[in-house]
Amino acid sequence: MNVTINGKAEEITEITLAALCKRFLDHPHTIATAVNGQFVSVNDRPEYSLKDGDKVEILSPRQGG
Amino acid sequence: MTNSQFKLYDTSLSSRLIMGTALYPSPQSLIDSVNAGGSEIVTLSLRRETAGDGAANDFWAHIQKLNVNLLPNTAGCKTAKDAITTAQMAREIFGTKWLKLEVIANDDTLQPDLFELVEATKELSSQGFQVFPYTTEDLGAAEKLLEAGAEVLMPWGAPIGTGRGLMNPYALRTMRSYFPDTPLIVDAGIGAPSHAAEAMEMGYDAILLNTAIAKAGDPVAMGKAFKLAVEAGHLAHQALLIEQRDMASPSTPVAGTPFFDLDNLN
């Protein structure tokens, strides 16, 4: 299916958000996720099925003022 | 007594200097500067993760070593909706209810959008967040933020990153007088330790800054300079400053002035 990950269109084979997150880091607690502007908690990721056209945000800690 | 304890929400603190973590020349410089500044709270953000990029994890590892309170921000958000989602993501990662709520109205001035700010504060407070809203000196907005659940307010000194100091000292002084019991933190626009001292002399509870230390020629020395200025300003406020006068008034006693009774020899 086609989704947008952090603003970039991609074709993916992963079904769940948890599976997609494995691409990013080995430690799922150092990222936070949202789909279509809604927060999805780490506990909900394994059950969260992605759909064609979803916009996924995967964020991690960064410097800030 | 140079540094009395105070509370932000339910946390007791000694240091009244809150430091940002961005723009430092190196991670070690950041750590050394925070230690020199004696800060017990640092701000940080969430940004898009890039697959295979370990930079974010390195930063996070350094921050965790500091063992300070974390104040995540919602920098760059332009709507209440985006700020709320970012806040929820930050709470999960950083494990804190604290949130520096920024909702930006304008890219040139980075001034707060007060309408969205109030809306986001109300929703986030209802979700159990302890909100630190980045706001202006507007008293009406400040009252609405308090009604919405904020227990701390953070008015700007000047636009973010400008280093211009307190652009409207009259309004900041008025705000301090109007909300005597609310913790007030000057956030943004501070460029020099004297600016921080000025706000603390007015009775502000703390100062939040980033660029002035991070971009200084020697960030570690500047961290120490701000620590001293914040402490000096706070102590001066507690010691009660004198009233300003229009006319000169001699400090040396007039009584007993020598030659007082002699005419001018010329």
Distance linking N and C termini of chain A = 38 Å
- Average pLDDT across residues of chain B? 94
Q: What is the spatial order of strands in the main beta sheet of chain B?
A: 5-4-3-10-9
Strand portion of chain A? 35-45%
The second-level CATH architecture of chain A is Roll
Number of strands of chain B: 10
Number of helices of chain B: 9
Helix percentage range of chain B:
25-40%
Summarize the structure in words.
- The complex is a heterodimer of chains A (65) and B (266).
- The radius of gyration of chain A is 11 Å and the shape is globular.
- Chain A has 1 helix and 5 strands; from the N terminus they run E-E-H-E-E-E.
- Chain A has 65 residues and is mainly beta.
- A 5-stranded mixed sheet of chain A has the order 2-1-5-3-4, with no helix packed on it.
- Chain A has one helix at 17-21, and strands at residues 2-5, 8-11, 32-35, 38-40, 55-63.
- Helices cover 39% and strands 15% of the residues of chain B.
- Chain B has 9 helices and 10 strands.
- In chain B, the strands form 3 sheets. In chain B, strands 5-4-3-10-9 form a 5-stranded parallel sheet. In chain B, strands 6-7-8 form a 3-stranded parallel sheet.
- In chain B, a hairpin with a 2-residue loop joins strand 1 and strand 2 (11-13).
- The longest helix of chain B has 21 residues, at 219-239.
- Chains A and B meet through strand 3 and strand 5 of A and strand 4, helix 2 and helix 3 of B.
